[in-house]
Amino acid sequence: MRIKARMVFGLENKEIVRRILDSLGLETDERSKETVTLFIDDPKYNQLKNGLLRRGIEPFEVKEKYFEKKELARAELFNMAPAGYWGYPQPDVNMEDWQRASYDIGTACPLCGFGAVQNRPYFVKGTPKFGRNDILALNWTYEFLITERLRKLIDQAGLRGAEFWPLIEYRKNTPIEGFYQLHVLSQLPPMSPSTEIVDQKLPVAGPKRCSCGKFGRNLALDQVYGVGVPIIYKRESVKGAKDFNLTSEWLGLYDAGPWVIVSHKVYDLFEKHDIKRVGFEPVIIED
To answer: Considering the chain, what is the average pLDDT of its residues?
Structure first.
């Protein structure tokens, strides 16, 4: 694993930044001329950062994990996370409205309000616009939405652990042809105690932390690299894992929910058919 850092500079110091970049032979990112992306083990990373700090410029950094193909090839399970989004659940006036439309509110924690179980399809506005993508996540819920093509590929591969739920056009109250929610059914046992999960700092305005554990917890940040620590499972606990699974743990703040853990078969299928807009991070399995 390597750590990739994306530095964002802003426009106010662009001439100074440009001179430093030129001295190091670095180019800004193709899509944004205000950012540079490089691995933190590249000597130029510290040279750039130190050069900026000496001139009073402190860039905003976003760090992410990068896995070599050989690391991904030997992983048994992955955390599959969204890397692209479309649309919002309806009705979208208040959070309570779309939740009541698609969830059993009675299953939510009465104190923090998290933990409700979806029991009906999502209502969405209009036909999804996916471009060339076959999978995107629904904003606010982070549930995966897929095309007919990907549904057929999953079916043909015999992957288990999920169903295909229709998406309902909100104004017409009719199913939308060619698009589905990938509704994951299987749930894994709790992660290994070796997985470091911590309480997040809660905002002043909002739900309070309670004993249900479904709000305000997340993976700890690695103190050296500033990225989330890995998910770890005991081998015994994942013997019954399906191809698509949910974590028992709810992770996140206002976006709290179970994460999706998938088999190597899912990773292989997505690689073979060039399915983009998701990220795969290997899960560690302890013997």
So the answer is: 94
Q: Based on the structure, what is the number of domains in the chain?
A: 3
Distance CA 56, CA 65 (A): 28
User: Do residues 79 and 205 share a domain?
Assistant: yes
What digits encode the pLDDT tens for the residues 94-142? 888 999 999 999 999 999 999 999 999 999 999 999 999 999 999 999 9
- Describe the chain by its helix, strand, coil percentages, rounded to 5: 20, 35, 45
pLDDT over 80 at 224, yes or no: no
78 and 205 both lie in a single domain: yes
Polymer length of the chain: 287
Q: Which of 160, 184, 208 is the last residue of a domain?
A: 184
79 with 206, same domain: the answer is yes
The conformational region for residue 138 under phi > 0 = left, psi -120 to 50 = alpha, else beta, is: beta
For residues 88 and 90, give the distance between their C-alpha atoms in angstroms, rounded to a whole number.
Answer: 6
Return the percentage of the chain with pLDDT > 90, whole number.
80
Q: How does pLDDT run across 143-173, given as a tens digit for each residue? A: 999 999 999 999 999 999 999 999 999 999 9
Please give the backbone phi and psi of residue 218, each rounded to the nearest 5 degrees, phi first. Answer: -160, 170
**Lookup: tokens for 172:** 């017409």
Closest by CA to 118, choosing from 95, 141, 147, 94, is 141
β-bridge pairing 244-251 and 257-263: antiparallel
89 and 180 belong to one structural domain:
yes
CB burial readout 95-122, b (16+ within 10 A) else e: eeebbebbbeeeebbeebbbbbebeebb
Unique residue bearing structure tokens 């703040």: 253
DSSP single-letter state for residue 76: S
Enclosing domain of residue 118: 85-184
Whichever domain contains 44, its CATH number is: 3.30.70
